[in-house]
Amino acid sequence: MRVEIVDVGPRDGLQNEEKTLPPEIRAGLCDRLAAAGVPRVEAASFVNPKRVPQMAGAEEVIAGLNRREGTSYAGLVLNEKGYERAVAAGVDEVRYAFPLTDEFARRNQNTTVEEAAALAGRLAGRAREDGVRFSVTLSVAFGCPFEGEVRPERVLEVAGQVAGASPDEVVLADTIGVGVPTQVRALVQELSEIAPEETAVGCHFHDTRNTGIANAVAAVESGATVLDASVGGTGGCPFAPRATGNIATEDLVYTLHGMGYETGIDLDALIEVAGWLSEQLGKELPGRVHKAGAFAPVSG
């Protein structure tokens, strides 16, 4: 079985870093990930640079890519203006994200869950007309820093509404890293049952409480075919207190290959990318495999 990995390092991985990397370096990171065989790269965030200065110059990042055949370059958006910027910049896919609680939605996007879900439907229609891939990420699907636990029934209610618009993908995001494998299995299984056949189910995990890789395995075993990860384990959310990095792409690839899944990614090349990014940021990154190295029998 093949698992499609989306490396969100150039966007989610860098948006919370103290050191802001210029657009040309972020484009270079995307190029290195593509050369390592990463099939989808979240290259830029089309958000207000005043709120997230680390993501300024999104159009410059896209323009600076050395596009590689077989790699899809995505842009994250939070509203319709962001969608229009992303499409105009020439992304291959748009990834629209919104939270599943009103308090987080208000703080992060100045909207409500109901309004954001309705926008997802409209953007899905526009994406079909524009010929770009479109996915919807449901943030804080396992817990919210402001409202606490998010009921599974609520997650599935909104996810079902979004899936009804037939986006290419619906992603459940554990934004603050509170989920555990039993929760993941239950939600992924139920979402897989209600999503249209043409809509893939994906997951996005943060490793805040050291459950990220276990959750990713549970997701794949329960029907998810797409997983987000960030090279080196970088990441965090500026609007989610105490949220730490994403699961490291190299750690995830090592695990999946060892379990017999295919990703199409060259693990050794990916480890080199993590080392390069560590140098660019001037600090040690939290991922483990790029420090320990790969183990010869693991291949994929």
UniProtKB/TrEMBL annotation:
What keywords appear on the UniProt entry? Lyase, Metal-binding
Q: Which GO terms describe its molecular function?
A: hydroxymethylglutaryl-CoA lyase activity; metal ion binding
List this protein's GO terms for biological process: ketone body biosynthetic process; L-leucine catabolic process
| Pyruvate carboxyltransferase domain: residues covered | 3-271
User: Mitochondrion as a keyword?
Assistant: no
Short name of one Pfam family for this protein? Answer: HMGL-like
The UniProt entry, under Gene3D superfamilies, shows: Aldolase class I (3.20.20.70)
Q: Does the keyword Lyase apply?
A: yes
Q: Which family does it belong to?
A: Belongs to the HMG-CoA lyase family.
Name of the protein: Hydroxymethylglutaryl-CoA lyase
